[in-house]
From TrEMBL:
InterPro entries: HTH_MarR-typ, MarR/SlyA-like, WH-like_DNA-bd_sf, WH_DNA-bd_sf. The lineage of its organism: Bacteria, Bacillati, Actinomycetota, Actinomycetes, Kitasatosporales. GO terms for biological process: regulation of DNA-templated transcription. SMART domains: HTH_MARR (SM00347). Residues 17-155 form the HTH marR-type domain. It comes from Streptomyces doudnae. This is MarR family transcriptional regulator.
Length: 160
């Protein structure tokens, strides 16, 4: 059983909180949808599936290679899922894996290649272009507040 999120006990949500929750849930659904990813694949030339792109994004943001298990924690998935994905991405030349020094040769580290970084850069540039169009007319201050709210919510959900 998972622990409840921190904060007040559930009860009737304030209208603004309920509206924000619905909007964030809708956003998560649309951004993660197969249709959105198909559009991204076509416009940005991203040759991989959604979960592989998420893995590459995490590696691109990392200051050093990840152990497979640590990457699985970041992605909120099982280590076996990361290991399977890594094989395909390595065959495509988008990541490299190396054995961890030491006695346990099962432990591997994974890092992104320049080709992998190029895929992430194309996906990010296309996504930012779409977002720029969607947010036309908002002030920098409004965008900063929105980013802060979304980041705080993301951090709370990720930590649970």
């Amino acid at each position: 059983m998972t622990s409840p999120l921190p904060g007040p006990r559930p009860g009737p949500a304030a209208p603004s909180t309920a509206e924000l929750y619905r909007s964030l849930a809708d956003l998560a659904l649309v951004v993660a949808s197969a249709r959105t990813h198909a559009r991204l694949r076509a416009q940005a030339g991203v040759p991989i599936d959604r979960s592989s792109l998420a893995l590459l994004r995490a590696l691109a943001a990392a200051p050093s290679p990840y152990r497979m298990g640590d990457l699985a924690e970041v992605l909120l998935v099982q280590a076996s899922h990361v290991t399977r994905q890594a094989r395909g991405l390595e065959e495509a030349g988008l990541v490299t894996t190396v054995k961890e020094p030491g006695d346990d040769h099962r432990v591997r580290r994974i890092t992104i290649t320049q080709n992998g970084r190029d895929v992430v850069a194309r996906a990010e540039a296309t996504g930012q272009l779409w977002l720029t169009g969607a947010l036309h007319g908002f002030t920098q201050e409004q965008l900063s507040v929105a980013a802060a709210v979304i980041q705080r919510v993301t951090d709370v959900y990720r930590d649970e």
